[in-house]
Automatic annotation (TrEMBL):
Stretches assigned to the Hydroxymethylglutaryl-coenzyme A synthase C-terminal domain: 259-350
Classification of source organism: Bacteria, Bacillati, Bacillota, Bacilli, Lactobacillales
Organism, as annotated: Companilactobacillus nodensis DSM 19682 = JCM 14932 = NBRC 107160
Record protein name field: Hydroxymethylglutaryl-CoA synthase
InterPro entries (UniProt xref): HMG_CoA_synt_C_dom, HMG_CoA_synth_N, HMG_CoA_synthase_prok, Thiolase-like
Binding site for (3S)-3-hydroxy-3-methylglutaryl-CoA: 29, 143, 242, 275
Length: 385
């Protein structure tokens, strides 16, 4: 029985800033941000948006009357959780009209959480082939105004419905993984922004990839030439290239050039959205499927990494006819129709938040799902009818 991704949905806030303008405001050479880091635009979430609302927006794009009642598992991977006790997935139950007979919970391990959820969903569907799983990656990457990590911020969510006989991506059930206690990135419970050792994190990322890639080849007797495309966790678009470059000179030049060409297609959306944390790898997948010259039955290698640290390499296969089940034009229109805001406006939004007893004015809402109020420190959400 084949198990994999049957539907893919994506959401990002409707506002963004231009990275050149951010560089100029920070008195930095724009090439450092646009070429050195590899970013062009950065999504800016509104005050009424958080991991819950973005998860709902992304999931709403893949749920319909035909699959909603088949959902038996709901997992949200996030490191932007809004509550230390209540899972993001619990808030989604009524927002998305989901059935009650599901397991719903949240996974946190930096940017790896959604991959853990996807692997759990695979096992769930394999054991319950009449059921489907909803896996969502939803995050707001925040480092702070005028910090070194500011250029790698972003926001958005990716949703995946996992089922038997999938229409988009078949998972091969081949993977290798590893975990270590690493101090490359962390966000204490008292802080709304992350702390990072940037150069060290880059080094660990590449080390995890090279170690896991060697193990994958040994375990499954496969090489880079067995894969048409390699997809990476991309908190900024030059990050994955650091790992891919380790293959330069180690594999035939023509195949390496092909992998680089496909990689460039996988980063087009991330370049214009920014860091999605748990969703970064899967936005890369969407970007490649939408922008690449994808052939039926293409073999993919996917590298997932979450600081702290957990890494995994697994393989998958593109399903023939996938384009009929992925609304590429809608996704491109969503990205093209966003509103550019100024750097000062972004700074204002960044510093604002809904306080306890605060209420969101409906006229300020430009999305379907929103944080409506905070009452007795409880976050309450609504859906625009």
């Amino acid at each position: 029985m084949d198990v994999g991704i049957d539907r893919l949905g994506f959401y990002t806030p409707k506002k963004y800033i231009d990275i050149v303008e951010l560089a100029e405001a920070r008195d930095v050479d724009p090439n450092k941000f646009t070429i050195g880091i590899g970013q062009s635009k950065q999504a800016v979430p509104d005050v009424y948006q958080d991991a819950v609302t973005m998860a709902a927006e992304a999931a709403d794009k893949v749920l319909d009357d035909d699959n909603r009642n088949d959902i038996g598992l709901v997992i949200v991977g996030t490191e932007s959780s809004v509550d230390e006790s209540k899972a993001t997935s619990a808030f989604l139950m009524d927002l998305l009209d989901l059935p009650e007979d599901v397991r719903a919970f949240e996974i946190k391990e930096a940017c790896y959480g959604a991959t853990a959820g996807l692997q759990m969903a695979y096992n769930f569907v394999a054991m319950n082939p009449d059921k489907k799983a909803l896996v969502i990656a939803s995050d707001i990457a925040r480092y702070g105004i005028k910090t070194p990590g500011e250029v790698t911020q972003g926001a958005g969510a990716v949703s995946m419905i996992v089922s038997q006989n999938p229409h988009i991506l078949k998972l091969d059930n081949k993977s290798v993984y590893m975990s270590r206690n690493v101090g490359d990135f962390w966000r204490p419970t008292f802080s709304k922004t992350a702390f990072a050792r940037g150069k060290y994190s880059n080094e660990i990322y590449v080390e995890f990839f090279t170690t896991l890639w060697k193990r994958f080849q040994e375990k499954y007797d496969m090489t880079a030439e067995d894969f048409d495309t390699m997809l990476f966790h991309i908190p900024y678009t030059k990050m994955g290239m650091k790992a891919l470059r380790t293959l330069d000179g180690q594999i035939p030049a023509a195949h390496y050039d092909k992998l680089v060409e496909h990689y460039q297609k996988s980063i087009e959306f991330s370049r214009n959205v920014g860091n999605l944390y748990t969703g970064s790898l899967y936005l890369g997948l969407i970007s490649y499927l939408v922008n690449g010259n994808v052939q039926p039955d293409e073999k993919l290698m996917l590298f997932s990494y979450g600081s702290g640290a957990v890494g995994e390499i697994y393989s998958a296969e593109v399903v023939a006819g996938f384009d009929k089940y992925l609304d590429s034009e809608f996704i491109k229109e969503e990205l093209n129709n966003r509103q550019k805001i100024s750097v000062p406006d972004y700074e204002t939004i960044f510093s604002e938040e809904l306080e306890n007893a605060g209420i969101t004015k409906l006229e300020d809402v430009h999305d379907k799902f929103y944080l409506s109020e905070i009452k007795e420190s409880e976050r309450l959400y609504k859906k625009v009818n």
